[in-house]
Amino acid sequence: MALVSEFLGQLTLNFGGESEPKFPTVVTARDFDPAKDAARIETAVKTKGVDELTIIDILTRRSYSQRREIAFEYEKRSKKDMITALKGALSGSLEAVILGLMKSTAQYDASEIKGSIKGLGTDEETLIEMVCSRSAEELVEIKRVYKELFKKELEKDVAGDTSGDFRSLLLALVQAKRDEPSNIVDYEKIDQDARALYEAGVKRKGTDVATWITIMSERSVPHLQKVFDRYKSYSPYDMQESIRKEVKGDLEKSFLTLVNGNGRLVGHDLPVLINNTIAKEKVVTRIVVSRCEVDLMKIRTEFKKLNQKSLYQTITVRT
């Protein structure tokens, strides 16, 4: 368990030698030698008891494309598949995170979505996190990879495993129709959308969920930020409070994820995800591994600002 904590903590702390931190925490390593790395990993795997620290040290300091080069060199020298070798050498949570890193971000996300809907029952929490916190561009790539990996359309699988307004919202997001950000601020449309959200919810008896879905799944993130701010001039409640009053269950969680992060996973979502699930380590692993090459630096910064402690400290305690 301590090794897993160290591994996840390392993923959240890497700066890749950059003078200024960027949104990813894992970046392309300088002076990269895939043959040397492959040799070190081969030795680590063959060592009695497995040298897990070396495996962690290498794979958390290389980008996905570099990890794939290492795998290629490993197979050249050992005539064995590196992923298969890692599977045989590792176990438990460390195996899960290492193998997760050997997938691209889209492959990892697609696999997590598949895992949340296959078999009996649905892991709604994972499904909400994956779909509601990904950008339209990311969802397009996830859909492509999902079909490539599982020979099925993501929309069909989501539709077959969910129902009602919750299904409608997820399918609207999966269609990836969200507008691109624009340098032109359309104040009239901002006002129209804010009023429409109010009139579809708090102002009326019952909720016109379809209107909420359309606005929250199709408008750009900067536009929505201004809409939610403008919304407070119409409603006695902010958008989050309105959601809690109007809808419940998985639909409520989905809308709150969209509004809290404006369609992105941000720092204040993490305590909720970590504290409201039995599989705390699984949740932290999924977030860190899936976002370390995307926006984990941003998540870290927001997390510390809102929670007065670092994500590293939280991971150390939780895993």
UniProtKB/TrEMBL annotation:
InterPro entries: Annexin, Annexin_repeat, Annexin_repeat_CS, Annexin_sf, ANX2. Pfam families: Annexin. GO terms for molecular function: calcium ion binding; calcium-dependent phospholipid binding; cytoskeletal protein binding; phosphatidylserine binding; phospholipase inhibitor activity. GO terms for cellular component: basement membrane; cytoplasm; nucleus; plasma membrane; vesicle membrane. Its main location: secreted. Transmembrane segments: none annotated. The keyword Ribonucleoprotein does not apply. A pair of annexin repeats may form one binding site for calcium and phospholipid. Belongs to the annexin family. This is Annexin. It comes from Oncorhynchus tshawytscha (Chinook salmon).
